[in-house]
């Protein structure tokens, strides 16, 4: 790999092109507040080089970002805390940071071909190592546009106490839509309502100066993207559901199997749950944990459609809860794939309206920050989602070549799920592990047989 240094060409503040229509403050919810100790979200798209000159492109992106912010006024605001300790978003049009950068010695093939994700991607994002509590005095969002030799990387950084993945990608998609169409109308307007079950009088107390990160971030790590084709994932799903399949169904029908009705849909383990279970098994083995050691697989779930009545799909803010599934390392390693997959499946299925509301009540009884990290060395945290429309970010010259993230919120056992570029149910897993554990899953035949090395 060539040197990864990135040169900053310019910085400025972008303001919404219209004053905020939201005159009241937006109170952070019981799903927002725990994220104040998390880093800002950092996700971006790698694009081929457009025909437009870089100066014209930068001007277009600034103009489009200004228009987009007028539809998402919360992101142009700042956090404030009142005397009682409640935290709000003040939609005061303070603006977001825009950075133009250059690294023309880097090429798309050079940064996508290594097995491990190159460190240069960390330099494609602003507000590195910034906790979301810093939104009291720093912008709630920043955009960095980095010109490389044959492409453009657009890296978006957004305060995690203000958005979850659903809100983040709606903003990113809208920004791309406006840039491509040069229009001020948008197809998916966010909802800023705050009369939900997550709205609460509970107060989360902080030490003077704000919270600290709940993990060190200094440990040596390796990061890889593992690609799974639709066919590979269907094979995993078939294996996880084998005991539910009617007699006579063969592996040869794997691509058609789940349309036949031969599996009870209420009992069916999903493709993603099957993939997660395989990862859990392989990482647990690679860590060489004692059989009696408890291991946790933590999944973030979208609560918008789980509530009754449902929240709007484009509710702006965090509407997520964490589902921890706990089992002994020996049981995860020795039992078949179905055993682990069914544990995950049962927990996800059980997370209904009543469970969401119990989670809110539990947090209100003991307000606390989200314990991001892997303090016991036996945990996996799955974030993001292959359902997010990451490759819909077409700014006018084609779909992204790849999706990558920055350094934010990464520790041993942090996994992020992205859709595969080819779509159709393919998945990319961004896997962050201790070097010895990564080497272990690379030697794990059961895991690697499903990984596509040519993508």
Description:
By secondary structure, the protein is an alpha+beta fold. The protein folds into 2 domains: 7-180, 2-Layer Sandwich (Chloramphenicol Acetyltransferase), CATH 3.30.559.10; 222-387 and 409-449, Chloramphenicol Acetyltransferase. It has helices at residues 54-71, 108-112, 165-181, 230-240, 271-286, 329-334, 337-350, 353-365, 435-442, 445-448, and strands at residues 7-14, 26-27, 41-48, 78-81, 87-90, 96-103, 141-148, 151-158, 222-228, 294-302, 320-328, 379-384, 402-405, 414-419, 427-433. The strands form 3 sheets. Strands 1-6-7-8-3-13 form a 6-stranded mixed β-sheet. Helix 5 (271-286) packs across helix 9 (435-442). The relative contact order is 0.17. Residues 246-255 have low confidence and may be disordered. Pfam families: Transferase. Keywords: Acyltransferase, Transferase.
Order of strands across the biggest sheet? 1-6-7-8-3-13
Average pLDDT figure: 94
Number of helices: 10
CATH superfamily of the largest domain: Chloramphenicol acetyltransferase-like domain
- What is the global morphology? globular
Q: CATH architecture of the largest domain, please?
A: 2-Layer Sandwich
CATH topology assignment of the largest domain: Chloramphenicol Acetyltransferase
The proportion of residues forming helix, as a percent range, comes to 10-25%
Share of β-strand residues? 15-25%
Query: From the alpha-carbon coordinates, what is the Rg to the nearest angstrom?
Result: 22 Å
> Which structural category do the helix and sheet elements fall into?
alpha+beta
- Describe the main β-sheet briefly: 6 strands, mixed
Low-pLDDT ranges: 246-255
Total domain modules: 2
Distance between the termini: 20 Å
What string gives the helices and strands in order? EEEHEEEHEEHEHHEEHHHEEEEHH
Number of strands: 15
In the CATH scheme, the class of the largest domain would be Alpha Beta
GO molecular function: acyltransferase activity
Keywords: Acyltransferase, Transferase
Pfam families: Transferase
Protein name: BAHD acyltransferase DCR
């Amino acid at each position: 790999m060539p040197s990864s240094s990135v040169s900053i060409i310019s910085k400025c503040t972008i303001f919404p092109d219209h004053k905020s229509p939201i005159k009241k403050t937006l109170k952070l919810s019981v799903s927002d507040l725990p994220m104040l100790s998390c880093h800002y979200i950092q996700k971006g798209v790698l694009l081929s080089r457009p025909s437009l000159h870089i100066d014209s492109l930068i001007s277009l992106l600034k103009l489009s970002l200004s228009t987009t912010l007028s539809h998402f006024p919360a992101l142009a605001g700042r956090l404030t805390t009142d005397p009682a300790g409640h935290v709000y978003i003040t939609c005061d049009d303070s603006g977001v940071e825009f950075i133009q950068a250059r690294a023309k010695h880097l090429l798309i093939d050079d940064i996508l071909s290594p097995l491990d994700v190159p460190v240069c991607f960390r330099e494609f994002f602003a507000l590195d190592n910034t906790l979301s509590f810093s939104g009291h005095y720093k912008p709630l969002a920043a955009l960095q546009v980095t010109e490389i030799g044959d492409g453009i990387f657009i890296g978006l950084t957004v305060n995690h106490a203000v958005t979850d993945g659903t809100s983040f990608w709606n903003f990113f998609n809208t920004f791309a839509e406006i840039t491509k169409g040069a229009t001020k109308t948008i197809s998916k307007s966010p909802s800023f309502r705050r009369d939900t079950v997550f709205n609460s009088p509970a107060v989360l107390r902080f030490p003077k100066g704000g919270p600290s990160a709940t993990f060190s971030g200094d440990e040596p790590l390796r990061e890889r993207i593992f690609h799974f084709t639709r066919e590979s994932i269907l094979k995993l799903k078939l294996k996880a559901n084998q005991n539910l399949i009617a007699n006579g169904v063969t592996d040869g029908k794997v691509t058609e199997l789940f349309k036949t009705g031969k599996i009870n849909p209420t009992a069916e383990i999903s493709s993603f749950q099957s993939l997660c279970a395989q990862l859990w098994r392989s990482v647990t083995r690679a860590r060489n944990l004692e059989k009696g050691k408890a291991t946790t697989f933590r999944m973030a779930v979208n609560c918008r459609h789980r509530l009754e009545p449902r929240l709007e799909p484009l509710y702006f803010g965090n509407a997520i809860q964490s589902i921890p599934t706990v089992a002994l390392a020996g049981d995860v390693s020795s039992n078949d794939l179905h055993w682990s997959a069914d544990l995950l499946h049962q927990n996800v299925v059980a997370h209904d309206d009543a469970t969401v509301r119990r989670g809110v009540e539990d947090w209100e009884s003991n307000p606390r920050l989200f314990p991001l990290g892997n303090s016991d060395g036996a945990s996996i945290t799955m974030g993001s989602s292959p359902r997010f429309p990451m490759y819909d970010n077409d700014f006018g010259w084609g779909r992204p070549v790849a999706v990558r993230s920055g350094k934010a919120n990464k520790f041993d056992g942090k996994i992020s799920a992205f859709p595969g570029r080819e779509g159709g149910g393919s998945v990319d897993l961004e896997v962050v592990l201790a070097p010895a554990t990564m080497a272990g899953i690379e030697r794990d035949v059961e895991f690697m047989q499903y990984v596509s090395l040519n993508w």
